[in-house]
Amino acid sequence: MAKSKKQEVVEEVEEEEAEVEEEELEADDDDAEDNKKKKKVEITFESLEDAKAEKIKSYKEYKDALKHYETVDKIFQKMMDKELKSKSKRKNNSSDTPKAPSGFTANKPVPEAFKKFFESKLKKNAEIMKEYPELNINEDQPRTIITKLVHAYLRNKNLYKKKDDGSYNKRVMAPDAALTTLLRIQDDEELTFENVQKYISRIYAGDADDEEEDEEEVAPVKVKSKSQTK
Q: 206: pLDDT confidence band, cut at 50, 70 and 90?
């Protein structure tokens, strides 16, 4: 019975696959034989002196290699210790326990002068207050909020120094009367982006000054001497 072309092709493919498998097996056998030969290789010397010289040479190479290993091991241990300390430090710094706010971010009583400025200049300004919809100026606030509100007022009123070309230098402010009074800016002083915190400090210092003035206004209590009581 004649074979179809399809059957012939299949048989040819199977024959080729069988040949490839046979070649691979032969190659594996050759590799195994080579490995056996390598294992059987023996070191021989022509004389005892040659063997002794080779032993001394090998021992020296071994000692040098061991010394090199010990040096590398010491360096490795130092680097490992440093890495462990660094990881421990990063772990401690990234603690889940939140740090308490401090400095400018700590809540403090809002100065009375700023409360008045807020009520008269900021509270009714919808453009400014949309950024702080839940702000309660009668509660303690961080100094960062006070600073942001001052900058918001400057932006809203465009209180910046004009350049000769008509544009504005936004690093130099031109405060209006209300802001000048709040920040206690003198005639010979200039408010800039770099020194604004100096003037924010004056708002807080103002409360302390007012307290001192109130204390001075209190009349001193007169203490009668013993002669007056007789």
A: confident
Burial of 125 (0-12, 13-18, 19+ CB in 10 A): middle
Condensed to tens digits (0 to 9), the pLDDT of residues 61-79 reads: 998 999 998 999 899 899 9
The pLDDT value recorded for residue 86 is 86
HEC readout, the chain: CCCCHHHHHHHHHHHHHHHHHHHHHHHHHHHHHHHHHHHHCCCCCCCHHHHHHHHHHHHHHHHHHHHHHHHHHHHHHHHHHHHHHHHHHHHHHCCCCCCCCCHHHCEECCCHHHHHHHHHHHCCCHHHHCCCCCCCCCCCEEHHHHHHHHHHHHHHHCCEEECCCCCEEEEEECCCHHHHHHHCCCCCCCCECCCHHHHHHHHHHHHHHHHHHHHHHCCCCCCCCHHHHC
On average, the pLDDT of the chain sits at 81
Least confident stretch, 35-49, 84-98, 183-197, 209-223: 209-223
Distances (CA, A) of 98 to 37, 42, 103, 171: 69, 70, 16, 35
Amino acid at 95: S
Rounded Cα distance, 131 and 122, in Å: 12
pTM of the shown model = 0.52
